[in-house]
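Review session, final week

We close the course with one last complete record, chosen because it touches almost every idea we covered. It is Ribokinase, a protein from Muricoccus pecuniae with 297 residues. Go through it on your own first, then we will talk.
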Amino acid sequence: MPVLMRVTVFGSANADLVFPVPELPAAGRTVLGGAWRAAPGGKGANQAVAAARDGAALRFAGAVGRDFLAGLALSALRDAGADLSAVVEVEAPTGAAAICVDPQGRNQIAVSPGANALARAAGVPPLAPGEIVLMQMEVPPEENAALILRARAEGALPVLNLAPAGPLDPAALRALHLLVANEHEAAWLAARLGCAADAVALHGALGITVAVTLGERGAEAAGAGGRHTIPAFPARAIDTTGAGDCWCGVLAASLSCGAPLEGAMRRASAAASIAVSRPGAADAMPRAEETDRLLGG
């Protein structure tokens, strides 16, 4: 039986307000839509829920406010059985997002970080050798950088989803075990590195393993073990809001079980195809048995 290592997610937890609209609003326009709903979200929490539902031993570290939105932001994590002992309450409002979703499942998102801007790497408890440490870019980048270097020093495996794209200390970037980016984030990074935006070029420029998600065209990765390409699973997209978060969380869960990168990517792609067929972000993340069925397991 594979050894199950813990996954620690350091990142954002938000309360999402989701608005179904007939079309995404353009600048200066007001669009009337259907009934809005409130749901838990934030890239960190979404990825943590995806990993926990896929079977990971999951610990979440982050910050919320002392307000009525904190319970909503953490609700899916609690339901998924995540360890929330490293979540701190701070004197700032809980992070929140306004999400417009059109009939094709495309989205437009505005985020107020709130308490997430006060998340601190120092609040993450000691890490175990081989533990997966998953991060995103909705907390201060200097805190991500500090945790990446600390994870390496403690023998853990730091994984960063460069979403949303933003600068990170170069030493920390090159210390990653794995970098995950979508096409837009890969292009942003490639422009700063002076290379092409594909996984092979980014791996060559950084010297680390890089995975690039390509939406309906699947995903690719390149590292010391070579190049991998994984096709997307067919899906009828209802809401793509949490697709990338699902992919990252399930990837981390699979890696924590000792799965090879190619196998972890395939499972992540299967899970993401399920998530986009449902409304919401954290609430849309599939359970392990659903992904198993899609994979024929």
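Two points worth writing down before the exam:
The chain has a mean pLDDT of 95.
The CA atoms of residues 218 and 232 lie 4 Å apart.
Good luck, everyone.
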